[in-house]
Amino acid sequence: MRKLVFAATLAISAGLTSSAWAAPEEEDSDDIAKCEGITATNFVKMRTMAPKGSRWATQFVKFAKQVRRKSDCKVDIEWTWNGGGRDEKAMVSDMKSGTLDGAAMTSVGLSDIVKDMLIFNLPGLFSNWAELDTVRNNERVYFEGKFDGAGFVLAGVGDVGAAKIMGTSDRWDDELWRPANLKDKGLSYITGDLIGPKFLEAAGASGTPVTINEIGSKLGKSITVLTTPPYAALQLGWSSKVRYVLKGITPYFSIGGIVFSKSKLDALPGEYKTMILELARKRGEKLTGTIRNEDAGAFKVIAKRCEEKVKNDESKGTSGGATTGTHDASDDEKSQWNSLFQQTRAGLKDQFSADLYQRVVTDRGK
Hints:
This protein is an alpha/beta fold. It has helices at 55-70, 88-97, 107-111, 129-138, 140-149, 195-202, 215-218, 230-235, 262-267, 270-312, 331-347, 354-360; strands spanning 4-6, 42-48, 75-80, 102-106, 152-162, 164-167, 186-190, 206-210, 225-228, 244-247, 253-261, 326-328. The chain folds into 2 domains: 11-160 and 255-295, 3-Layer(aba) Sandwich (D-Maltodextrin-Binding Protein, domain 2); 164-252 and 297-364, Bacterial extracellular solute-binding protein, family 7 (D-Maltodextrin-Binding Protein, domain 2), CATH 3.40.190.
């Protein structure tokens, strides 16, 4: 049974990643040696789904070192990688119980705190990053207030990447380049995501939930199609099983942010709280462009690999014809996808604050 994961979010922390060609950041040259052997007096426990050693993790470590140095070695941010074997929903639960102080999460995790955060992941809502930037900046005060009211602090926002449709099969009839191909197939979506199920419903299909941690083992088996940002697919190793990509269609732009327990930050000395929040905000702002460049570059890498895989595969070619590993969506196909995206957005209208949906969707002609 063929399955698609409509990953309206991924287990990657947003906006905090590095670039191989990025200019050195000022804080990278700061001397941290002065804190060696000094025990901190304040500890902030944080978690991310990013794997240890990844570019995300590298940046989180730098963030922690900067906080430690600027606090005169008194504040230590302790990161747990790979979600500690759990998902983002568990992160929110642990922050509410007080066993976790903060996390770097995608919008699905953040939506467990403020449901309206998922509005940015509505399919077809934005044509480019600039449109998302404008809307997100306009809604900043709204969301900061919502998180505050829920007992959290939204410290910084960022991006995961521009999602693309990718598949693990080179069979012509498996390549879901047209929405109609979704019908009568077994499909999946990320647990906790309300957009995926509605998307499949609008397509006349049904699906079952899967956890993010299940994707790697099921990809190429029960899961044959991913809708995910390319850079995340590359970093998590998923792209090694991808055999084709659809060009010209960006279902959604995946975002996320860093969030803290309000009670934890309020328990810190005022100067430390202010410092942590300021550093988190600045880092997100600095690296937003970087993740977008990484994501675009990753898509080119994956597409090239797909073309090479299919070209060198002796078993390619079916009754429907061989594939090239990539496909440029035609104008008619783009119209079909956009129609499905519009149906999905309309079907989710009641899931969001009426005023927010009016501003972000309706007033923008979406």
